[in-house]
Amino acid sequence: MKLKLQVNKFATAAAILGLSLMGYTATAQTNITVDAEDAWVGGMNVYNLDGTYAFYNEWGLDDVKTEINVAENTISLFPNYNTYNTADPYWTNPDGSGNKITEGLTMIINDALVGEDVTFSGTVVSNTLVSGYEAKAFVKVLDGNWQALAEDIVTLSEPGNFTLVLNTSDYPAAVHFQYGFMVTGVNANPADMEANGFVVVTEGEPQITEPETVNVTLAPNTTQTINAYANWYQLDGTTYESGNIWSLEELKTEIDAENNTFILYPNFNTYGDGTDPYWANGEIGNKIFEGNTYVEDNTLLGQNVVFSGYCVSNTLADGYDGVAFVKVMTADYQLLNFTPTALVTGESFNINVDIADFPTAAFVQYGYAVTGLNANPDQMEALGNAIVSAEALSIDKVVKNKAVIYPNPTSGTLNIAVDGTVEKVSIFNMMGQKVMETSGNIVDVTALNSGMYVISTTVNGKTATSRFVKK
Fold first, then answer.
1. Average pLDDT, whole number, for the chain?
2. Which terminus of the chain has a lower count of CB atoms within 10 Å, N or C?
3. 220 in any annotated domain
């Protein structure tokens, strides 16, 4: 096996920049290429003509129809011919055509590569296969039962370089590693061997093209399709119960079209009237609820994605987390990557995920999530919300129909600066209990104990919440 070991790029950069590598475990990067002297083995997957799977067997390279030339360091890959038998209807139709689709494998099995970041590269010297036959290169990681966990595959259609990458350390259940080639098509009549053609491959250095960077944002006043999805867990926060498509209204995500913002709340609709013990436990909820407001954009597959936005405010009560995120998932929605960042009042965020790092990815989602106890609607004012936009808003736009509270912290008096009339002021402690209700632009909080409070203000018929600290 021709290979090169390389130091992980992050470790190299960290050493150059003087960054600490404490707590960082480097993954060995291994480049492998075609070496005719390696211990290549054959295998055969057989399918019926309708594509249904029949069986797999180990196969000799001669039977697969693979020719290895050590002197020239080449491997020639042919369609399969040895199964063709006019006397056997399992393999051959009465009209003389083959009766099975064969996938001939020419591969190396090297379990020592498990745990490493592997690059398999080479060169297609020529490809004369006729239509109906296809040659591919592959790398694959499998579990102890030989079930595939992940793979990267490329079609060898034209002469030139091929490069495959698979970081096996991303799959802790990995036990086996394979790389090599496959030729797929109907098992063929040996009389047609010359006409059917073949593929010749040899060694070659890896050629990795850096993925394009795509910048994305999320805003109501666009053509984006905004989705809502709910996951809920037992009260331990880790035992998953279920998930389902939700509406934005049910999720409790509001759209402020005037300011082009989303207002993200804890979930209230599952609590209902508080009589369903599955969802309610007296005056509080009985599930940890994760409400997701997001866009699914699978055109981002293979790209380097940067999701950016701005948190106008985050007044969510203790016990509730608001985050922006990017998720990468497989075709059956198994999570490959989840990169969140907390929503912090007055701060922009940028989440960078290279989707090309996940060759089995099928879905890409980005958006926002609020996680915490499904809540009693009576506590809506006290529990707060998070307001997010695609970009920072001007202060005039932020405070319109909303209140600016100062000084904060305060030892006695709160001033409420607002473009409008303060119709109602409610103050709650961090347990959600209302401790004061009044109106007007000046509020005396001298009587309150020291600590953090949530203040809810109603201005021109619109209610907003924020936090303040009583010294």
1. 87
2. C
3. yes
pLDDT, tens digit, 9 for 90 and up, residues 268-284: 999 999 999 999 999 99
Same domain, 38 and 132: yes
Question: In the predicted model, is pLDDT for residue 247 greater than 70?
Answer: yes
Residues 332 and 233 in one domain: yes
* Structure confidence at residue 18 (pLDDT): 35
Tell me what pLDDT residue 15 has. 32
Number of domains in the chain: 3
Nearest to 125 by CA among 203, 206, 242, 227: 203
Type and span of the H or E element at 415: strand 413-418
Residue 161 structural domain: 2-202
Same structural domain, 171 and 227 = no
Peptide bond preceding 266: is omega within 30 degrees of 0, i.e. cis?
A: no
400-421 per-position pLDDT tens digit: 445 677 787 888 888 887 767 7
CB 337 within 8 A of CB 373: no
Q: What is the pLDDT of residues 154-176, one digit of tens each?
A: 999 999 999 998 988 888 889 99
Give the Cα separation of 47 and 50 in Å (integer): 8
442 assigned to some structural domain = yes
pTM to 2 decimal places: 0.54
Alpha-carbon distance of 121 to 6, in angstroms, equals 15
Question: Is 367 part of a structural domain of the chain?
Answer: yes
State the Cα–Cα distance between residues 314 and 262, nearest whole angstrom. Answer: 12
CB under 8 Å to 73, separation ≥6 — which residues? 34, 35, 36, 37, 202, 203
Q: Which two tokens stand for residue 379?
A: 């506590």
In a domain, 130, yes or no: yes
What pLDDT was estimated at residue 8? 40
The pLDDT tens digits for 318-337 are 899 999 999 999 988 889 99
Residue 465: give its domain's CATH number. Answer: 2.60.40.3080
Q: Structure tokens of 279?
A: 């969802």
| CA–CA gap between residue 53 and residue 11 (Å, rounded) | 44
CA atoms of 323 and 338, how far apart (whole Å): 11
Domain CATH number, residue 309: 2.60.120
Q: Which residues contact 299 (CB under 8 A, 6 or more apart)?
A: none
